[in-house]
Amino acid sequence: MKRSSISEVWNALKRIGTPDEVASAILFLASDEASFITGSTLSVDGGGLIY
């Protein structure tokens, strides 16, 4: 199965995430805006956890 086919089946958004989308999450976690977040999971998976 091709990688794109896998994402269409196992991803609520029906596409593979872009590097920019992952980078946005990383930048947020590295920023002062996330300074009060501890022991949490931020899933950047396009809704893959709901399947």
From TrEMBL:
Pathway: Lipid metabolism
Annotated SUPFAM superfamilies: NAD(P)-binding Rossmann-fold domains
Protein keywords: Fatty acid biosynthesis, Fatty acid metabolism, Lipid biosynthesis, Lipid metabolism, NADP, Oxidoreductase, Peroxisome, Phosphoprotein
GO molecular function, one term: trans-2-enoyl-CoA reductase (NADPH) activity
Pfam families found in the cross-reference section: adh_short_C2
Localization annotation: Peroxisome
InterPro entries: NAD(P)-bd_dom_sf, Peroxisomal_t2-enoyl-CoA_red, SDR_fam
Class in the EC hierarchy, top level: oxidoreductase
EC number(s) from the headed UniProt entry: 1.3.1.38
Domain of life: Bacteria
Subunit architecture: Interacts with PEX5, probably required to target it into peroxisomes.
Name of this protein: Peroxisomal trans-2-enoyl-CoA reductase
Originating organism: Rossellomorea vietnamensis
